Amino acid sequence: MFLPLHDDNPTRHTPVVTFALVAINVLVFLWMSRLPEPRQEMLTYQHGFVPARILQLSQPHPMFVPIRVAVVDPFWGVHVEEQKLELAPDPRQIGLSLLTCMFMHGSWMHLLGNMWFLWLFGNNVEDRLRPLGYLFLYLLGGLIASAAHWRVDPTSTTPIIGASGAIAAVLGAYAVTWPWSRVSTLVFLVIFITIIDVPALVVLGVWFVAQVMAGQESLCAGGAGGVAWWAHVGGFLAGMALMPVLSALLGDRPDEEGAPANY
User: pLDDT band at 261, cuts 50/70/90?
Assistant: First the structure.
């Protein structure tokens, strides 16, 4: 197990989009965490990405999924029972869910892990692509990540939430652009704990291989599993492919003195 702590790759500008993405994700999580659990579950189905809903675009029939609902009984008080939630074949809602799912998280650990990787590697990608180019890569990478998960498990009615697919695109972009940047990494080997400096390509390459292996294992077990491993894989590959193209289209930026930037 490992945890990257920081890299030796400086930036020249404040990463305003990265700041904004972290803030939005945190605020959405705080807002949802204050809601009753049944309400959270309902919002997760409505605004998370449910792969089986893609079929509703060509076969417009409602879909019914089980959720827990708080019911007030005059004799027994408030209790939770299972009911069916209707997901209408609404193209607008289905399309928006591909976007809104990127800003929802299921737990503090889910949120903190994603935001740490976004902050650590996203600032350099934003510095290279500029804010709008970076946001384009982030959102398109997230969409491609969801598409990869859908391709593997198109009939799943389990909602997918989290920014990890979009962040995987950022990791792929970083890996292909600064493969030899040194990353200080906290390594856990049973009872042995140390910090070592390793190239970004090694850190992110190990992470990518772990996602592929976990995805293969989940498929052998009969499904995509509870974690969208293939969304991580698809997002990472999307970032690797998009970064050189966007860098070429946007060109390099001179620094404040007018000299070419050194990457």
Answer: very low
